[in-house]
Specification:
The chain has 12 helices and no strands. It is mainly alpha-helical and about 350 residues long.
Amino acid sequence: MINDGKNFTISISSGTVLKTILYVVLFYVLFMIRDLILVVFGAVVIASSIEPVTKWLGKRRIRRLPSVIIIYFLVALILFGIFFFFLPQVLSEALTYVNSLPQNMNTSDLWSPIKDSSLFSSFTSSVQGMSSNFSLQEVVGQAQAFITGTGAGVLKTANFVFGGALSFILIIVLSFYFAAQEDGVGNFLRIVTPPKSQKYIIDLWKRSQLKIGYWFQGQLFLGLLIGILIYVPLLILGVKHALLLATLAGIFELVPIFGPLLSAFPGILVAYVDGGVTLGLIVAGVYIIIQQLENHLIYPLVVRKIVGISPIVVILSLVIGAKLAGFLGILLSVPIAAVFMEFINDVEKDRKAVVDAGLV
């Protein structure tokens, strides 16, 4: 390379080297304690989610600590009821459907074009083998004991959802601590953020907190409402496994755009196999009507106005969260995306202000 005899000198000060080392060490430490960071953020999200309810109770002259205790007690009671009464019935319906699947596939005309193929025979044989190796009552009983049992059962469930019993306990304790204090999350942020950034970070979080709380409330309401709207007509029409299909519809509401399609397919398939083309078309019409109600009435009036998070952002955040941190990552993905979107909006506003001022 020709440089015309010129020498270039690159000077790196000791301060620059020290800062680089400190940044590397900081990133390494953050990486090593990433699970703890997720736990703390999970606690912050839970505390933020119940904040609107706490304020609502406060307006009814119920002090903050009793309000938080009431909320946690009611949530624990609801979860216990779901795990003890509702989930075993859903598991029972799911296993009943799996047991009846080979017979339904053999008798239904839907599978006629591939009934003679080796792939079809292999699949039905595998399902029959699974069905013969498991007792419906035994599996449901074990699942109920696993979920609702005292001590070990609760810790096993916590281990699956939160990645460990200790993480589960920390999330509950920290979230209760944040929620019980007036501006508990803000006080925590003041401790862990640099003084010069405190004002902006706390303001950013307060704006994000509203979106996070409203998103959780909106999704819970939407999932419950869609589940009921699916369950009632399926029950009236006599479609088998109506409770299971309604539960799937409620869960799939977490997935924007594709969720309703994913929930409609098994419902239409079960109706067709059980009652033929007529019942299948009627059930398809039920799903379409409910989907149109959701798109044009429920979602715009209830969710979109108070949340303001793009469906595409939700999908991407769910996928990334699942990839990086499993089930806990899924739970925290949308709240993290809400904070990130608020930050991006601030950056865009600052850039626009600079352009309007003619500084660029």
